[in-house]
Amino acid sequence: xxxxxxxxxxxxxxxxxxxxxxxxxxxxxxVYNYERYQKAVNQTVKSQKRNSKAILLVAFGSTWQMAYDAxxxxxxxxxxxxxxxxxxxxxxxxxxxxxxAAGENAADGAxxxxxxxxxxxxxxxxxxxxxxxxxxxxxxxxxxxEEYTRVISYIKDFANNSNGDIDDKYLASVVLKLxxxxxxxxxxxxxxxxxxxxxxxxxxxxxxxxxxMGHGNPDSYDTYKAxxxxxxxxxALQKLNKNYYVGTVDMKDNFxxxxxxxxxxxxxxxxxxxxxPLMSIDGDHGHNDMAGDxxxxxxxxxxxxxxxxxxxxxxxxxxxxxxGYTCDNSTMIEKGLLDLPxxxxxxxxxxxxxxxxxxxxFYHSKNPE
Length: 369
Known about the structure:
Layout: H1 2-17, H2 33-48, E1 53-59, H3 65-81, E2 85-91, H4 94-101, H5 118-125, E3 134-139, H6 146-159, H7 168-173, E4 175-179, H8 188-207, E5 208-214, H9 228-238, E6 244-248, H10 256-265, E7 272-277, H11 284-290, H12 316-322, H13 341-356
Parallel strand pairs: 1-2, 1-3, 3-4, 5-6, 5-7
């Protein structure tokens, strides 16, 4: 039943992603948005096709310019490392696609961008005049959790010709490969990420706490028990320096008050707290949940926690500030993981491993045990 639930969620997400507001200038109202988007992606792929193989990067998405810049630099890095492949990027979040096209953060300098969901790209890769012989789908997720299951579902639907609009002979011949999330492996990947982060932030950890804010899955949607990667990363980091901590915005028992409790249990009751998004990009969570000015502090009662132990309507910056630490705009490290070349390289290593490996058996997806 659980697998069926996640499949239905993935299918629903695809339906939603097909229904966002059109950004095309096409005035023919008789053409559905779906057809417009597919036409736009088809044209993009045809105009940019240089090779017989393609890499599709799948990110959740964002609406912030610094996130767009990170995606752009990632595409360029991929083109440099994989010169025999055409490289494209898609968003899996319909909300991000919709809001990016509407220019949600244009007032803050963000460009208006048109992104499209993975099914449009996969279909475009199979169109006449393109028909890539090999397609590598690279998940840009941090952990192999709920969002990663959607990536797998996109591949399965494509391979199974779910819409019935792809040449079956082509599907029988195309080679599909899957690059896994950043911390797929509990030992190799987690330690690689820890070492990369320490290589960048050792000097900050010498000054005070470096608190990484991951996303996490709600407990009821902790697909494949992926949330444990955050705990494993904190353990790996603390072997390098006890000042590293890893919390989340959506993982039970690992909200910012739980990070504080672990800090205080280790005797850290004052000093600097540097905060850093443990996400592929610095987007809404980084700008708001981490570095925002939301503050529910009450001068008489202090902070009130909800049933899960989280302090709502308060950013990490304001929370640690009120808890007596030096935590302000100067200690916010507003960079996503794709902005860090040594961390980004771990994703790229997964892509290289996928290319060298066997074609994807999409009936037995690359999920953790």
